[in-house]
Amino acid sequence: MTDATSKRLSRPGPAEAGRDAVLEAAAEEFVKHGFTATSMDGIADALGSTKGRVYHYYRGKAEIFLDVVLHGMHDLLLMIEPIATESGVPARERLSRMVRSHALCMMEASNPQRVAVQLVQYRGMPELATHTETTERIIELRRRYERAFRDVVSEGIADGAFLDVDPSLAAKSMLGSLNWIPMWFRPGRGADEVARIADFFSETALRSLEAEGA
């Protein structure tokens, strides 16, 4: 993706795999403990290395957190935008797949995506508040993601599949519900249960929008 999502916050260096390992370990720590309670020592322990290795790539915890969020938003966009813009597929079907995919992402092994939804909670903290440019980039990516949902809802309204509602509010309502999943969902449930929950969110979103007789 040739946009702001590809810009790294880590120090320059050739060891791409090493940096990705730091981000993976950090994402797990942020999911478990949140931004405030996560430390550079904890990230190093999760990585199974010294703190020096973490500092080799990043200046501090804030840069790691924001880079994890950028990666999470990047992956969400790569997952959702192709569904949203798929030619010849009715808006109702595309929205169903978008909601279901997002729900699955929030439940399955997708720590960067789960960390991405934490930014709203932590963005006012002093450690993050100094990274205004990066935070604004992330917010724009979130808007872009929301627009994908809003535009599909608008298409469904135009073709008569959905009620004539405010597409922006409909998108916000859906994403607010979906992004809350990590707050109550605990990993370890069976695949059938995960699929049932994803189907529930998809069906509920459609029922809230469907026009009578559509």
TrEMBL record:
The keyword DNA-binding applies. PROSITE patterns: HTH_TETR_2. Keywords: DNA-binding. It comes from the Bacteria. Residues 39-58 bind DNA. Coiled coil: none annotated. Residues 16-76 form the HTH tetR-type domain. Gene3D superfamilies: Homeodomain-like, Tetracycline Repressor, domain 2. The keyword Lipoprotein does not apply. InterPro entries: Homeodomain-like_sf, HTH-type_TetR-like_transc_reg, HTH_TetR, KstR2_TetR_C, Tet_transcr_reg_TetR-rel_C_sf. It holds the Pfam family TetR_N. This is TetR/AcrR family transcriptional regulator. It comes from Agrococcus citreus. The lineage of its organism: Bacteria, Bacillati, Actinomycetota, Actinomycetes, Micrococcales.
